[in-house]
Amino acid sequence: MAETKDKALNERFNALPPQFQAAVVARPHSPTRREKRLAVALFGGGNSNLEAAKELLAERGTPTIFGSQTRSRALHKLAGARGYLFSVEWTDGANVTYGEDFLSEEEARTFFDCFTDDVLNADYARAMLAEVDAESGVYMHIRLTSRLVDGAGAPVPSSDRLLATRYAAMCGGCGRLLSAEGVAGKSDKILCPTCAASTCACPSGPDRLQCVLDSQFGGMLRESVNTEGSGRVNAMELLSVARGLPWTDSPDLVRCFDLTPLNKIQVSPETRTKYLLPVLAVYDGSLDWPIQRKQRVAERLAVLTVQRLVAELPSLPESCRRLCREARSLADAAAAASTASAEAQSVSGADARESPASALWAAKAAKAASIALAKTAAESAASAAYVALAQRAMQESAKSVKSAVLAAAEAARTAASAVAKAAKATTSTQSSQPARDGIFRAACAVWIEAAE
How far apart are CA 299 and CA 376, in angstroms? Predict the structure, then answer.
């Protein structure tokens, strides 16, 4: 049986093109059975069997200097047939650099992420810092690179490309271990977000948020959800850092109305930072405002959203726009937004989904704000007779306020998408970004005015 398997393996190996055989075999005249299996796994079928190849290459010793192991040399030969070699390197900045090579970027990135987690060990960090005496507290630098290799597995000159950098450090304030993207400074003491926020001398408000944003996150608000230590932050995450809380984007934990839909509007980081940061400062702590103030803000937000944003949606007839602009009460706003949604649904266009959705969100905001006010009236009526009933009415009112505010934010997000799609459909050469930016600026102005 073994002889039959060997014969079949030999036949499949010998059927491979010579360059594929040479990519795997260390000694061309005497290939080993393992090398033949590896060549067949990679090049013997219509699709490369990478899983089988990975199993054959999975036997590793402890990490050592590049090029000192048979595995490293074999990977270089394999990479020669595939074109690229990916590497993860790590160093304490003073001693020799160590690393691992990989055939695919996916494998290399997985190792890169896992290795960062592995070195976040307090005993290891203290030992390394005692050895390198780094003033910044950085004890490990990690790089993910790629390079082109020729058919013999040799690097192609000037083909190295840096894909990612990260460092591990010990906070100079509390001693907490952290990792961050990029290259650390040479002498500045690294601080975790909590310690950095506590040492900031800026007063509360936009200045403090801008200070934290500049000192830790490159001065820009990002659209996506980010992980701690990535060097990137969105609006809600910035509030958690500025407040000295554990990293989170939860509105309940940072005590702010949910601004996530506004943050998700697809504008440039510069535009998002310029216009959303003042909104963030105004609404910081908004979940702790008195219920009467929250209701007033929700009411104004719903009405202004219909007047300023829904009225500008594409494809609406002028009579509908006028109805939206003239809305003065929650009832007027809800009726105008519902009419706009129905009108937008009857018109086919690039924004056929977004315009009706935006108007519908605005109508929901107005209705939720109305419910919040009604619950307060119920609270006032019940308070004299039954305290528990009054408390429940207040809780339901606060919940309706949060729903109204979130719906208003969603209305702004979908309105931005609607006008951008309509602008792009007007002409193939016209950019939709100015239209989206215009709605974003208008939305931020509405939110600031509603809180005044």
Answer: 13
Q: Among residues 140, 36, 130, 128, which one has the least CA distance to residue 88?
A: 140
Q: How far apart are CA 233 and CA 222, in angstroms?
A: 6
Give pLDDT tens digits for 48-73. 555 555 555 554 333 333 333 455 66
Q: Please, what's the b/e burial string for 209-231 (b: 16 or more CB within 10 A of its CB; e: otherwise)?
A: bbbbbebbbeeebbbeebebbbe
Residue 336, number of CB atoms within 10 A of its CB: 27
Give the DSSP H or E segment for 59: none
The C-alpha atoms of residue 375 and residue 398 are separated, in whole angstroms, by 9
Contact 171, 191 (CB under 8 A): yes
Nearest to 36 by CA among 23, 54, 51: 23
pTM above 0.85, yes or no: no
How many angstroms separate the Cα of 69 from the Cα of each of 54, 58, 64, 95, 304?
17, 13, 8, 20, 68
Q: Which residues contact 60 (CB under 8 A, 6 or more apart)?
A: 71, 100
For 431-443, give the DSSP string. Answer: -SHHHHHHHHHHH
Residue type (1 letter), 206: P
The answer to whether 305 and 359 are in contact (CB under 8 A) is no
